[in-house]
Amino acid sequence: MTLETKLSVFLNIILSAVLIAVLIPSIKMIIKDRKRFLVLFFTMASMSYLLSALYWVAYEVIRPGTRMPFAADEIADCAMILLLSASLETLLHDKKKKIPGELIFTFIYICANIALWIAWSGEWVQDIVFGLPYFYFLWMIIRGIRESKVLKKPELIACILTPVLIVGFQTANLLTSGNLQNISDLMAYSFMYFFMAWIGIKSIKSGNIYLRYAFFFWTLIAMYSCSGYLYLVATSSNILAVLLVYLAVKKETLINDIR
Amino acid sequence: MIYAENVFICIAVPLLIAILFTKNSARRMTTSVLTGMLVCLLSAYIGGFLQLASRYSSDDMSIFLSPIVEEFMKFLPLLFCLYIFEPTYDELRLTAVGIGAGFATFENCCFILTSGAQNLGYVLIRGSAVGVMHVVTMVAIVAGLHLLKTYKVFSFSGVTGALALSVTFHSLYNLLVSKPGVSSYIGYILPMLFALVLYLLNHLSKEFDEDQQA
Questions:
Q1: Which residues of B touch A51 (CB under 8 A)?
Q2: Of A113, A154, A184, B160, which is the most buried if we count CB atoms within 10 A?
Q3: Of B80, B175, B198, B58, whose CA–CA distance to A47 is shortest?
Q4: ipTM score of complex
């Protein structure tokens, strides 16, 4: 087992511990009040994510160095995304649901990401099937951010342009070679991690639930796009995102209680 | 080689006759056990086909594809029961437990016929790990479906989530027991542990409901 894999296993164990720590109070909340849809979906999503992380750890320990084909942890990840989307849907109250611009952006962005995943892994069916729930998730996040008006117009434009730019650099990285490839690689990762840091800080400062889900979404995208030590940074950010999302869910539930 | 269909007929006929002479929950339980056994047989057919199509080894098959097929196949009769008969939570749980127990029983029968039952220790582990695992995953699915139904948020996402939980749990178990050593011991304990957690949650939930009513 390489040092990177060992660190990755260690981080996944921490992620599992964090998820267990988040699950216990969430389950308590469900037992005490049966009308908390948000907590229910969040708890089920956390359970899926926990099982996925445990499966990944077990796989790396039991079968180190072997390629993992179509496996249960991807089903669990897919379920987690669907459940988190469902949890967001319980919060949304916007009547104007189908805004073409939002839908088109979501569709194109997720399709571009799926195409990149296919180009990297070569697994067509798997990437398409398990990529589709991200469409629903991203759409819910965008609807939430629009509805809560947490971002100003320039920030919104930056949020749309940066991911598009990153996809552009990643595509250029696939199509070029030599210095151009190195530059596009550097640009893609710089923008990706800068954007992750910005959205993370913004979500902590604002406490907005949709921004925290967006931070979580972005850490997942970074995890799927990176390898080596950058992947470890993305995983660490993902652990932080899980905690932030939990705190936002808890806060939202308490607000609903006061109402 | 064993003839699973013959084993199935041998076990199913007395149960079929028993259904004629039972009523209410006893009939529901017997029918569910029988359904679970049939589902196990069908899963074996589908698993065999997938193994040929994917060219996976039997080890890879049991880790990657069998849990998905088995859990999905067990889930289908449960979903059918839920939508057609609109049962209460207790009735649904009884059906799920029956399907899980039937599935585990038939799988264990075929396994013992194939590899022998000389080693009592191993047979006990097989019974208390795999047997419990099939029942526990079904109970977990029912608990999830019940919560979704209670909340009136019986959506595609919720149902998929409940199914995915059982598939991943089953896969994790199969992965852990695939290699002898510490991991397999953890795997053998896992279903019992999960059963205990589910029981405790159920108990806590009931206790809280009683307190609220009082």
A1: 165, 168-169, 172
A2: A113
A3: B198
A4: 0.85
